[in-house]
Specification:
Length: 355
């Protein structure tokens, strides 16, 4: 039985049959990893193709002639940059400019939008934009990796042909599946919104085609290697898009969106801290909430840290005071529960590795 209050996706029984290690995440009981473990799943995504069940992520359906204008005056990015049939990354802010949630908007057609918040933030997004929470009416499979399109093409060439940051509805097994060229791994791939009663069959067909099942453990190490922010770590209360290095998510020319005035003020003065990447020698992982020091002075704190399977070393993201003068190539000290590690400041992403 599920722990009290935990929700399960429509693919829960499939995860059990595949031997998944199940954990709580965002109020859902989700697979952390399968038999070969997180590192093997991580490398399978970088070198082949994996499939994640990300049905716990929210879907808020927004329909009607006022939908476009509502999203324009609420979210940070500018929908005028795209058109129907495209996906766009954007933020929902509070009045202080803090990131309430980072979101993908699937603009499926005229006046037809699927707004995709993080699992625990669906209610906040619905409160801001209205719409209908249809999260439990569909499953979402994320097929990611350099072989993702080739292997998905065995099920549906049309689905495999959906371009990056495009959205199309295609037929798979007689079901209408919304396919978006999006993901959270740093690799090419697609995300499929599938009617619940077809999700198990499509998952089975993907596995038969040679796609490896992967859990949230690999999803986290993959996004960290790719330098992608995670809400609650690199985004959240007190963290603005400018501090997170995401000014490109802001439609500065729009006359209105939540948090605009606070961001304009911060842009004029410059952010007080910036998101920075760190690597350490050896295979010992770096960790979050570790104090970062330079020449004995505290200059920041890590927000995410782990072992990088591709670089075979510890990596971390963290915020560093802009007044500290920290630059690429500097050597800093990271205090992990009283154990100090030397770490170098590096450009993002960690992978593919930039010289």
């Amino acid at each position: 039985m599920a722990e009290m209050g935990l929700r399960r996706t429509a693919l829960y029984d499939d995860h059990v049959q595949l031997g998944a290690k199940l954990v709580e995440f965002g109020g859902w009981e989700m697979p952390l990893s399968y038999g070969e473990g997180t590192v093997a799943e991580h490398k399978a995504c970088r070198e082949g193709a994996v499939v994640f069940d990300v049905s716990h992520l929210g879907t808020v359906a927004l329909r009607g002639p006022d939908s476009h204008e509502l999203l324009q005056r609420t979210l940070t990015n500018d929908l005028a940059k795209v058109r129907p049939g495209r996906a766009q990354y954007t933020h929902l802010l509070d009045d202080q400019g803090s990131v309430v949630d980072d979101i993908i908007v699937w603009w499926r057609g005229d006046d037809v939008f699927d707004v995709m918040p993080n699992a625990s933030n669906t209610d906040s997004v619905t409160s801001a934009i209205g719409g209908e929470d249809v999260t439990e009416q569909r499953s979402i499979l994320a097929v990611q990796g350099p072989d993702a399109r080739r292997l998905l093409g065995q099920l549906s060439p049309q689905a495999a042909a959906v371009k990056r940051f495009h959205v199309e509805t295609v037929e798979i097994n007689g079901a209408d599946v919304v396919v978006a060229g999006t993901g959270y791994t740093g690799e090419d791939g697609l995300e499929l919104a599938i009617p619940n009663d077809e999700a198990s069959m499509i998952l089975e067909q993907l596995l038969e085609a040679g796609v490896t099942p992967a859990g949230l453990g690999a999803r986290d190490t993959l996004r960290l290697e790719a330098g992608l922010p995670l809400h609650g770590h690199e985004l959240g209360d007190g963290i603005t898009p400018l501090q997170a290095g995401l000014s490109w998510v802001v439609g500065w020319d729009k006359p209105e969106f939540l948090g605009r005035e606070a961001l304009l003020t911060e842009r004029s003065t410059g952010p007080s801290r910036v998101l920075t990447g760190f690597v350490s020698e050896g295979r010992q992982p770096l960790r979050d909430h570790a104090v970062i020091s330079k020449d004995g002075d505290v200059v920041g704190e890590t927000t995410s840290g782990n072992f990088s399977p591709m670089r075979s070393c510890g990596i971390a993201l963290g915020f560093v005071k802009t007044s500290s003068g920290v630059m690429i190539g500097d050597s800093l000290e990271i205090d992990i529960r009283g154990r100090v590690r030397e770490a170098s400041v590096v450009p993002l992403p960690f992978w593919p590795q930039r010289s």
